[in-house]
Amino acid sequence: MNQTVLITGASRGIGRAAAAAFARNGYNVAVNYCKSKEKATDLANELNGYGVMAAAYQADVSDKTAVGEMFGKAEQELGRISVLVNNAGIAEQILFSDITEEKWDRMFAVNVKGAYNCTQAALSSMIHEKYGRIINVSSMWGISGASCEVHYSASKAALIGFTKALAKEVGLSGITVNCIAPGVIGTDMNSAISGEILEELKENTPINRIGTPEDVAAAILFLASDKASFITGQTLSVDGGFIL
Ligand code: NAP
Predict the structure, then answer these.
(1) Model pTM?
(2) 131 labelled catalytic
(3) Rounded distance, CA 11 to CA 96, Å?
(4) Any ligand 1 atom below 6 A from CB of 36
(5) Buried b / exposed e across 97-129, counting CB within 10 Å, b at 16+?
């Protein structure tokens, strides 16, 4: 029987590429989205073409009630969720002194509370089955910190702590918890960055290119696989060597 993965923020970018990678490898896919309904629905239809079940589910991951409803519906339609990818995230470039309380709270509500909400919704069934894979999408800025992205960097560092602590708590239940720390990846999230800055970022990357969503998706898929069954609590950088 196919395993089922739920990927948050799968309507675009890294989440979308991960959804395609899982479907190609025989997983049923629950495509979570917040605002991009059409993109998520089109993707789910496309994934059905791989001979797996896929459907789109709306939920703002910061909303615990909405997340609970999404998991209930997805499990009913696609089967028990054995893999959770906490990928949904927001970013913002702003001076620290200009970060309002509202901006700070929203960053943590989506990037950190979203992972808490989804993981709590997924965990009881994983514990019951004594099997599960949780993959959190952090960032290289969560490791090294980025100027003008203090709230983003702090939220991504929080995910790394979340990963390590939960890995210790649920290992005995056959559940692994890992993190991916992408570098600069060509998605909408970086669309506001000028060509000049992107070129500079590329030059600071030993592999000398901007990453693709597929680069990150491949690492997520690996951490979900049986090949990664003895790996937990880790942060895997997918950044072309940017942070060494
Ligand atoms: P993206 O292209 O901007 O896509 C963001 C995705 O997150 C969209 O599918 C969006 O859904 C979803 N999302 C945003 N807020 C949400 C919410 N409240 N509830 C549910 N879904 C929500 O971003 P990306 O580059 O693919 O980034 C994916 C993850 O990788 C993020 O966690 C990001 O921090 C991390 N990351 C990215 C980079 C990079 O260079 N791109 C580097 C390091 C880490 P809707 O469109 O439906 O609203």
Answers:
(1) 0.99
(2) no
(3) 30
(4) yes
(5) eebeeeeeeebbbbbbbbbbbbbebbbeebeee
